[in-house]
Specification:
The protein is α+β, with helices and mostly antiparallel strands and about 475 residues long. It has helices at about 1-10, 20-30, 140-145, 150-155, 170, 180-205, 210-220, 225-230, 240-245, 255-265, 325-330, 380-390, 390-400, 410-415, 425-464, and strands at about 40, 45-50, 50-55, 55-65, 70, 75-80, 80-85, 90-95, 100, 110-115, 120-125, 125-130, 160, 165, 175, 270-275, 280-285, 300-305, 320, 335, 340-345, 350-355, 360-365, 370-375, 420. The longest helix is centred in the C-terminal third of the chain and has 40 residues, at about 425-464.
Length: about 475
């Protein structure tokens, strides 16, 4: 009986999906997450909105740019949103929908409500939806969508090789409990004070990147408040001899180079050392053409750019696999413990992380540069990673990134990045300061997670 149902459903699919996790969720579980409930598909409460497209180039005026990294997970909050006038790739205007959901890895919970229809420029990965507010309180729906059970099931809808996406049509097939609106409203009233507590906790904490910048600024005296207006000034007078070299033809930012050379590098209290004197820089490797990344576990992981977060941590649970045959082809392109991986292609150039023991000897994609420390007695790997994460190195990375349709940081330019040259005692002192402040942030994170679990329990109580 099961085989007959599965085949019937397969041939009626709009998209031919053969992977087992999709077929189980579709054919056996029928897109249901909560059993024994009066369920309705998301298509009853969400309607996709056709967002206005913005072509690559310059906008008429500065607008807030929202990328995936600006959407805080599980918290209906945007962070570090910048106003931009130049967009390096096609975007969409986000101002019509009530909620924004990404196609790329929505299981990470990077959704946000836009009930007031504020206007943003967004990545083309972001889809706007109207909410049927006769059936769903928007805040109730948001917390239902970021419920751990639902997010875990979205993994079953993902497809793609390097980038795991969920087709919006499949998303709308997912079934949710049809809870009466008055009950939803009652739960939302209980959620609101918890949200306020979470917001207060978030305001009291700093991001890891913020702490790294803060400590490096304290130690070396960087004055970014004075430098920021220089960056916004698009005209600087420089001698041609300063720029007439091998970089001129590659479209790097001559403006940022001028600022670094004249206002950052000359600082009297810093000695600089180029990365090429500290590390050997090697690349990763693309999989052979036509071969795919595997969901099924093998002995060989394949670390991709999206597996590395901006705070330097690796999303180990979500790293995918490759076959033994593919590993044999690219096995010389690996990462080892205490190597530093630096992203060098695409919108997330500049992310870096220290390879942990559990990822040692695993293959890395071609979008990484692998930094192998030559002498760990002179250079603490953690200090070096923090130094590259700091604003002073990220400024140089922005300077050296080629301004093509898809940004790229060439390996020979990685070698040119300068970092503050200090002895091992000073390196340890800087590490200690950063770690102490990070520990205080972890305590706040634990409190936030406890509050989030309170909201999860309220949602589950209403469903049950």
């Amino acid at each position: 009986m099961y085989k007959k149902v599965a085949v019937n459903r397969f041939v009626s699919d709009e998209f031919m999906r053969l992977d087992s996790k999709y077929r189980i969720f579709s054919d056996i579980e029928r897109f249901e997450i909560w059993k024994d409930c009066n369920n309705i598909p998301l298509s009853k409460v969400l309607r996709e909105v056709n967002s206005t497209k913005v072509k690559k180039g310059e906008l008429e005026e500065k607008m807030p740019l929202v990328e995936l990294q600006n959407i805080e997970r599980f918290s209906n909050n945007l962070v570090d949103v910048e106003f931009v006038k130049d967009v390096g790739s096609d975007k969409v205007v986000l101002n019509k929908g009530d909620i924004v959901i990404p196609k790329l890895e929505p299981r990470k919970g990077q959704f946000f409500l836009n009930i007031n229809h504020n206007e943003y420029i967004g990545s083309s990965e972001l889809i706007e939806y109207e909410i049927n507010q006769k059936l769903c309180n928007p805040l109730w729906l948001y917390y239902l969508l970021v419920n751990d059970k639902l997010l875990a099931k979205l993994r079953n809808l993902e497809s793609g090789k390097a980038h795991q996406r969920v087709n919006p049509d499949d998303l709308l097939k997912v079934k949710i409990p049809n809870i009466p609106l008055p009950i939803q409203n009652g739960i939302v009233e209980q959620i609101k004070p918890i949200e306020q507590e979470i917001l207060a906790l978030k305001k009291s904490k700093s991001s890891k990147l913020g702490i790294v910048h803060e400590v490096f600024n304290e130690e070396f005296g960087f004055d970014w408040e004075s430098i920021t207006p220089l960056i916004e000034n698009r005209k600087h007078i420089a001698k041609f001899t300063e720029i007439a070299n091998d970089e001129l033809k590659f479209g790097v930012s001559l403006r940022l180079r001028y600022i670094f050379r004249h206002f950052i590098k000359p600082m009297p209290n810093i000695k600089w050392k180029a990365l090429k004197k500290i590390v050997d820089v090697k690349g990763g490797k693309r999989l052979p053409k036509g071969d795919a990344i595997l969901e099924e576990e093998t002995d060989y992981k394949y670390i991709k750019v999206e597996d590395l977060n901006w705070d330097g941590s690796f999303d180990i649970e979500n790293i995918k696999f490759i076959s033994q045959a593919n590993h044999e082809v690219i096995k010389q392109y690996i990462a080892e413990t205490d190597d530093i991986l630096l992203t060098i292609v695409g919108a997330t150039i500049g992310k870096c992380g220290l390879v942990p023991e559990e990822l040692s000897d695993e293959n890395i994609s071609e979008n990484f540069a692998r930094l192998i420390i030559k002498d760990k007695n002179k250079w603490n790997p953690q200090y070096l990673c923090y130094a590259i994460m700091s604003k002073c190195s990220q400024f140089q990375i922005d300077e050296y990134t080629g301004k093509s349709s898809q940004g790229k940081l060439a390996i020979f330019r990685v070698n040119k990045i300068l970092i503050p040259d200090v002895d091992t005692d000073k390196q340890m002192e800087i590490i200690s300061k950063i770690e102490q402040r990070l520990y205080a942030q972890k305590e706040i994170d634990d409190k936030i997670e406890s509050k989030r679990q309170e909201i999860e329990r309220l949602i589950e109580s209403a469903i049950n």
